[in-house]
Amino acid sequence: MELINRYLPQYQFEEVHGRHIPASPGRVLDIVTQPHVFDDPVARSLITLREMPNRLAGRLGFPSALKHSPAFGLSNFTNLGRDGDRELAFGLAGRFWRTDFGLVSVPDPEAFATLDPMGIAKLVMNFTAEDVGQGTKLTTRTRVWCRDDAVRQRFNVYWLLIRPASGLIRHRLLSRVYRASDRG
Questions:
Q1: CB atoms within 10 A of CB 138
Q2: Which domain of life is it from (predicted)?
Q3: Torsion angle, CA of 61/44/87/111, rounded to 10 degrees?
Q4: Cα four-point dihedral sign 107, 108, 114, 116
Q5: How many domains does the chain fold into?
Q6: Which among 81, 91, 105, 142 is placed 20 to 30 Å from 97, CA to CA?
């Protein structure tokens, strides 16, 4: 958990899910980064539902930051790196409670580490792989830090609404990694 602790040592919100995967830690982390693992139909449907108000506004002629953007996905995250066969981490910053996610462009890990403006939340999602003899314990952890009280209050309401879907997406992701490891 060196990467998540380096990029988000303080946080107010955390979600953790894990699963045993019958493969080596390095193989498991390689699988996590494969596009087909993240391309889950349920996750796509939930993201489509989440983006619908903003995209509909654009179709009706109202301002829409998502009108010409692809659906939200892993490409929106900043790759914060990989620590050998132990950990992968990804960062995201924005006003997640807004219908357009209010994302802040963060080009690289250094920019993410130094980003500290008022009015936004920072999120780190990591995957840790622990060798447990007959395979790997894969854990995904999502942490969020809100610099000021106003952001924390807005994010708290959003967290209460989005957390069940977020948990479902994480469980499905872990299952997809399991199935991919079983195939080869």
A1: 26
A2: Bacteria
A3: 0
A4: positive
A5: 1
A6: 81
Q: What is the per-residue pLDDT across 4-23, written as a single tens digit (0 to 9) for each? A: 999 999 999 999 999 999 99
Q: Structure tokens of 147?
A: 């610099």
Place of tokens 């699988």: 31
Only one residue has tokens 């963060």, namely 106
Q: How far, in Å, CA of 64 to CA of 13, rounded?
A: 29
Residue 153 is part of a domain; what is its CATH number? Answer: 3.30.530.20
Residue 83 belongs to domain spanning = 2-182
What pLDDT sits at residue 68?
A: 84
Give the global pTM: 0.92
Query: Partners of 143 in the beta sheet?
Result: 14, 124
| Block residue for tokens 């995967």 | 21
Q: Which of 174, 168, 175, 182 is nearest to 44 (CA)?
A: 168
